């Protein structure tokens, strides 16, 4: 909507811009056109319409605003604007022109107008047109119209009763005009009553539809909440049933422990064979047999592992068997755990293997993240993979065929590159470089190129690959990449300054 300055002159205001803005305001406002009132007042007060050739404001309204009710509708809006301004702080409760029309006769008495709006709000927080009309009648009852009549003089002759004749007489030439005005007024009243009736019906229908919609939404919401409560109740019932089963099992175990304790008290110490009675031995053997039966099933799973997430399932089964073996000192369970985890059947080997496999999910995630990087090289892959060298085969089993092929391609490319560099460095080694023969595992070295940063840094050879070595640099100690691979001819012995 166009915002105009009241101090602008008529010549400075463009008619087309102002007229388009007025039309857009009327189109955008469906129920109440209060936003267009300021522009209408400006159009009338500044006589901007004369720029389009209109003689007066009424002619402009009839031609340009006929789609929105013309001059009559504009007068109604201006009257509603006066009512809202007179109502002061209560003006925000008057929502449309029809409501303001019911309070129009109180516009000249602001206090009574405010009292009427306050009374309507006390009866209904969202008052309608009828609520405002009823409040206006209470605050200022309408005056009854007196019928025109002519009284006969009480005294036939004389001027004493001449003033008793109260009928007003009009000249002959005005009677037709008065009759036409009365007919126009009657038609206008009928039209207004019809509009009022239609408006009330539409408002009632809208209110009923809104109530029905609210009830439907409330019913749907209640139904959804009831479904969620039913699901929660079912879950609680399942939890209670599980707790009941656990309580029953605990009671049975407590009863069995009590029986064993009673048997321990009743038997002489010489019959115990250090720790348990014959009865307790039988009970433990029964538990061991059950555990061994489960162990056989787990070993069959280890022979034919599940197809999906096999390594993780086998790791968990191996850890479970380790716990069984530790608790019961059972050799078969230890062997089954070793078979599943791929280690020696000793507690220490199984423990080390379990700790290694606990790193497997994190290692697979790191490897996949590196392989997904654009332009991934063998050095990028090796910087991460060397940290998980001990579980390299387990990692390869978890990768997809595409990822495995990518690693093979990177390794092949790196091998070709190394082969090319080996040929060039063999000639350098044959030329008499003594460093190639002296550098070995444990040597303290630095880079031989004085233009490299590592020329003044210290590193230790941790692996000898023949013509190449792997060096762990001190400056990379706190970084993720701690080592790198070099030809021996690229290095020199580190000499402290």
Q: How many DSSP E strands? A: 5
**Poorly predicted sequence stretches spanning 5 or more consecutive residues:** 148-166, 269-277, 291-296
Number of H/I helices: 17
| First-to-last CA distance | 79 Å
Which range best describes the helical content: under 10%, 10-25%, 25-40%, 40-55%, 55-70% or over 70%? 55-70%
**Percent in strands:** under 5%
Choose one word for the global shape.
elongated
Sheet having the most strands: 5 strands, antiparallel
Overall mean pLDDT stands at 75
When the domains are counted, the total is: 4
SSE sequence, one letter per element = HHHHHHHHHHHHHHHHHEEEEE
Decide which structural class fits the backbone. Answer: mainly alpha
Radius of gyration: 50 Å
**Strand order across the largest sheet:** 4-3-2-1-5
What does this protein structure show overall?
The chain is mainly alpha-helical. The protein folds into four domains: 129 residues, no CATH class; 90 residues; 81 residues, no CATH class; 66 residues, Roll (SH3 type barrels), CATH 2.30.30.30. It is 61% helix and 5% strand. The chain is built from 17 helices and five strands. Strands 4-3-2-1-5 form a five-stranded antiparallel beta sheet. A hairpin with a 3-residue loop joins strand 2 and strand 3. Helix 9 packs parallel to helix 11. The longest helix is centred in the middle third of the chain and has 95 residues. The two termini are 79 Å apart. It comes from Komarekiella delphini-convector SJRDD-AB1.
